[in-house]
Amino acid sequence: MRTYIGGHEAVSANDFVELALGTPVELWLGVEGETEEERTARLAAARDILAENPNMPDDVSRVAAEVIEAYAPELFNVIPVGPRRPAARRRATAFKGAA
User: Fold this and answer.
1) pLDDT tens, position by position, 35-48
2) In a 3-state reduction of DSSP, which class is residue 66?
3) What is the rounded distance in angstroms from the CA atom of residue 56 to the CA atom of residue 8?
4) CA within 13 Å, CB half, 45
5) What is the pLDDT, as a whole number, of residue 30?
6) Higher per-residue pLDDT: 14 or 25
7) pTM, two decimal places
8) What's the CA gap between 69 and 65, in Å, rounded?
9) Over 4-64, what HEC string results?
10) How many Cα neighbours within 13 Å face the side chain of 2?
11) Burial status of residue 17 (CB atoms within 10 A of its CB: 0-12, 13-18, 19 or more)
């Protein structure tokens, strides 16, 4: 199954996230070994993007929730079972007798 976002094919999970966000994942997560100057510039760019798109965090959360809902069995290896029945309650039994 192929997934296209805005005419671009998402080949990997990172491609999907990058195309869905419209920005590279590294902008939000950083990269290993980045300098303090690079980190400051990256965070400034991220703040600018969020200032221009104030609904972005809500939109990303909504998309993530929809994907999890749609693919939950595959993501969590869940096997649906029949309807749940309440567990039978056990009565505490008092044992009487001599030891």
Assistant:
1) 999 999 999 999 99
2) helix
3) 20
4) 14
5) 92
6) 25
7) 0.54
8) 6
9) EECCEEECCHHHHHHHHHCCCHHHHHCCCCCCHHHHHHHHHHHHHHHHHCCCHHHHHHHHH
10) 5
11) buried
